[in-house]
Design brief:
Layout (H helix, E strand, L loop, with lengths): L6 H31 L2 H24 L5 H35 L1
Helix pairs in contact: 1-2, 2-3
Amino acid sequence: MVEPVVAQHILIAAMAGAMVVLFGAIYAMLFAWSKIKKDPRYMIGAYFAYSIFVVFTAIMAYTLNLTGFWYSIVAVMLIGYLLAPHGVWHLCVGTHKQEVEAIE
């Protein structure tokens, strides 16, 4: 049987959700800047933002009483969000490779 969420936990989950959105965006932004500017310091910042993203995701999952199957979905989504920017970057570079070569 599923336990209901405690009323006080809803506010904590909402704040954690806002932080998930914020640090997810910071991670994606720093990842892109690292690739565009070819500066590994931005990638360090990106992974730091991702680690904070993971912490707030865990807080949100805990406060919403996610367990079992739902917890595994959260884990898969975290792995996907870690790997997705790499795939999107390679897709963008491959798609626009001919345009960049034409300009140069």
